[in-house]
Amino acid sequence: MKPFRYLFCILLITWSCIAVPSASATKSSWTEPIKGEITDKFGTRGGKHKGLDIAAPEGEMVVAAADGAVSKSYVSNSYGQVIFIKHDNGYETVYAHLNKRLKKKGDRVKKGEEIGIIGNTGISTGTHLHFEIHQGAWTENKKNAMNPLTVYSEEAFRPSSVHVHKGSAETKREITVRKGDTLWKISRENGLSVGKMIEMNGLANPNIYAGQMLRLDESREKQRTYIVQKGDTLYRIAEKMGVTAGAIQEWNGLKGETIYPQQPLLIRVDRSS
């Protein structure tokens, strides 16, 4: 019996050394591909939804969840603009419905490196990232798909409410846009997200122009989001929030007075009032 036990132990040790992907063992190697609100989870739609849907403002950057190499980068009828990454830890991830792809097949990427811009391409009903993790290679029937929330917590995707700009004792309150600047470049340089910049400045989209003044903090004003309720009018909301209807139109890029239930509206509130 002793030789048998010895052989069994050798086989057990050998099996345990085989590189099998393990979500719990590799949590530290992952980062969130984007910060935003989870709008749909793994396993919904009768079990057919094999990933997470994460909504975020238009123009936000999507980053690689871990080190690896781009295995696919193309336009799909269903995924839209999509990137696949095979990771050094044995997994493969999918980033779908992008507005723009910044990496091509074969590119090496580092964890947290920008690979695309969030979008609404393919079979999609709003700006969001569809994110999948596969324990092994992606297959057409998605047999290796796993719930990303076994690697991440839901809280991990939530944007930070406070952003601190490292590198200077005092952060500038405003900046003048220069020729060639983009909102993504200014956001990165000042330790802010694109979504935060859009919110603070009441922008309708990420497009900016030379000479434009942009706020970099909320020292004078704070932002509130009002969700339009059934029966609301622009003037009723303005009266309720203590602002003018024209101001709400300007902050939200509205061209008329038409609003709809569940529409989010940015409201600027003077801290001194």
TrEMBL record:
Q: Which domain of life is it from?
A: Bacteria
Tell me which SMART domains the record gives.
LysM
Q: Does the keyword Signal apply?
A: yes
- Protein name (Swiss-Prot/TrEMBL): Peptidoglycan DD-metalloendopeptidase family protein
Q: What are the record keywords, sorted? A: Signal
What residues does the LysM domain cover? 173-216, 224-267
Name the CDD domains for this protein: LysM (cd00118), M23_peptidase (cd12797)
Segment forming the signal sequence: 1-19
Q: Name one GO molecular function term.
A: metalloendopeptidase activity
One Pfam family recorded for the sequence: Peptidase_M23
Record InterPro entries: Cell_wall_metabolism_enzyme, Dup_hybrid_motif, LysM, LysM_dom_sf, M23ase_b-sheet_dom
Q: Where are the transmembrane segments?
A: none
User: Per the record's keyword annotation, is Signal included, yes or no?
Assistant: yes
